[in-house]
């Protein structure tokens, strides 16, 4: 009888522990064969559990407030796109260390606005950066000078981020910059490279703060911008994500990187309305926190962690 009670006790403990663990974070599984349909099936996963494997791609849309910072992990390579604002530098560095980042094979800053390069000097000083990319556009701010000085201290060369640049992220991964393809934009935002990343059948599009003018230029070049996951340009501003561009991308998931109660009203309701019309699921860092998209080359899963 004592042995029987002991077994019952162990069984109940395991059930309760499992229930507590799976309730920590939420995920959505999405199969790319479902055109413009975001499934309502929910899969529970353990908060903090590492999903890294040789056969997966992980894209972390890191919650840095009103700014951008995206970490891509695939084939044991790491690519960081932007470094958020300065006031989120500690949060960003802590996040990267928690996922065991020591080396960045690629560090890309999309354009020299503070909400994208504020943490850049700290990233350069804290991690082993192999390749650094930025558009051929300078700025006069202290934040920009700090970034340049950090690069000099590490003897890092600035590779120009522009149309036609390909990045080596290993087997089954194709990563290419589709813009900028002009050097006469008035807005700094428009020097943001639009980057397409394909891993087997999983497709991602990263847009920085590129606006409708750049979207038009990219489409005029006949590039294939189709993607399952779209990082909304300019934090979901009405200045980006034109209807014709959105139609060509045809995403199932859209990510808005923005700060809680931000003064700009990002993401704008016009953008949200466009996404609803095509039944595209929207995730927002201001509401969902850190957003992790994982793919096995066919299916993708979204996990949010506040």
Secondary structure layout plus pairing:
Blueprint: H1 2-22, E1 25-30, E2 42-45, E3 57-61, E4 70-74, E5 77-81, H2 89-98, E6 103-108, H3 114-117, H4 120-126, E7 128-134, H5 142-153, E8 158-160, E9 166-167, E10 173-177, E11 195-199, E12 202-206, H6 212-220, E13 229-231, H7 243-249, E14 253-256, H8 269-277, E15 281-284, H9 285-288, E16 290-295, E17 300-305
Parallel strand pairs: 5-6, 6-7, 7-8, 12-13, 13-14, 14-15
Antiparallel strand pairs: 1-2, 1-17, 3-4, 3-16, 4-5, 9-10, 10-11, 11-12, 16-17
Helix pairs in contact: 4-5
Describe the protein:
The structure is a single chain. The chain is α/β, with parallel strands linked by helices. The chain has one domain (26-305): Metallo-beta-lactamase, Chain A (4-Layer Sandwich). The protein is 27% helix and 26% strand. The protein contains nine helices and 17 strands. The strands form two sheets. The protein has a ten-stranded mixed beta sheet, covered by helices on one side. A seven-stranded mixed beta sheet has the order 9-10-11-12-13-14-15. Strand 3 (57-61) and strand 4 form a beta hairpin. Helix 4 runs parallel beside helix 5 (142-153). The chain is globular and about 50 Å long.
